Amino acid sequence: MKLTLIRALGTSAAISLMAASASFATECIAPANPGGGWDFTCRQVGKLLYDLKLVDQPVQVTNMAGGGGGVAYGYVVTERGDDPDLIVAASSATTTRLAQNAFAGMTADQVRFVGAIGADPGVIVVAKDSPFKTLTDLVDAVKADPGSVAFAGGSAAGGFDHMKPLQVLEAGGFTDIRAVKYIAVDGGADAITQTIGGHTQAMTGDMSETIGFLKSGDIRILAVLTDERVPGFEDIPTAKEQGFDVVAVNWRGLYVPKGISDDQFNAWAEKLQAVADSAEWKQIMADNGLAPFTKVGADFQGWVDKVIADTETMSRELGVIQ
Asked: Which phi and psi angles does 53 have, rounded to 5°?
């Protein structure tokens, strides 16, 4: 029947029919090559959207690498700005780059951030024999002598790892952030090695990078930068409970085109909430070292707006942007 219909319609009409049909299938753009965090978000969330019958057809995943997410961002803004069937993987790297004007002048208000449903928690780490027993000990040492404490991290100066200890220090009343010593190295494992070896006094990164070293007893995690303690690691205190109101997580989430309607935006928020609430997603998080972090809809958009504003302010103070 389908073949007969296509022949009857003719080639051009058939193409139009297929294009119209395909337009109803959800597409998730992963702004990087296969295998990374954005690709993971699209493939895992996309699969559950279909498995949980939240969308009618399997989600198409498109990898669009380039510019640290900037190529995909520009494409969505200029070519797909009102497509209700398009979702795009995002993370803390997305908001950091937007705050630092790394997407060629494009701004965060050109899309809508619809939700985050998991995160790799930020951590502040010291070597097992460090004299710093609590996060307060470390902050007090920096206050007393900023040059006495160097932090190692896997991002460049001004990147997300650099921002984490600066947020903690500012929350503790220390404002001379340019005086804080930060050593950028090639990834979290190198940052931990620097700290274990005594070349730096602390490490800043994501929890997933530290688990092996934690289990071997080479390090202590002074604080996890989440709202609540991480399941499975309940002995590690949060920064918030130690008096430093900081949440810094490498969240896994999505944005959508700005031009979709409020009803369409809210519908995506509800679908993401349903994925987050599912037993299947909870198992995926446990299997991949992610902590619960669910913010959807207007709540998430408001949180993102504040994160970007704070990151922009801190980046100017550091001289990363003018």
From this structure: 60, 35
237 and 144 in a single domain? The answer is yes
| Domains held by the chain: number | 2
Last residue of a domain, one of 242, 262, 291: 242
Task: Please state, in angstroms and rounded to a whole number, the distance separating the CA atoms of residues 169 and 175.
Answer: 7
Amino acid at 220: R
In this structure, what token pair is assigned to residue 163? Answer: 């921002």
User: How far apart (Å, rounded) are the C-alpha atoms in residues 153 and 145?
Assistant: 20
Q: Chunk the chain into consecutive blocks of 10 residues (it has 322) and report each block's average pLDDT, rounded to whole numbers.
A: 35 37 77 88 96 97 92 97 97 92 93 96 96 98 96 87 94 94 88 95 91 92 93 92 94 97 98 98 86 94 94 88 80
Strands 181-184 and 27-30: unpaired
Pick the last residue of a domain from 215, 242, 269: 242
Judge whether 58 and 50 are in contact, CB under 8 Å: yes
DSSP states along 156-201: -TTSHHHHHHHHHHHHTT---GGGSEEEE-SSHHHHHHHHHTTSSS
Range of the domain at 312: 25-119+250-318
**Pair (257, 113) in one structural domain:** yes
In a domain, 159, yes or no: yes
Let me know if residue 3 belongs to a domain: no
Quick check: helix, strand or coil at residue 30?
strand
pTM of the model: 0.77
Enumerate residues 6+ apart whose C-beta is below 8 A from 274: 52, 54
**How far is Cα 273 from Cα 270, in angstroms, rounded to an integer?**
5
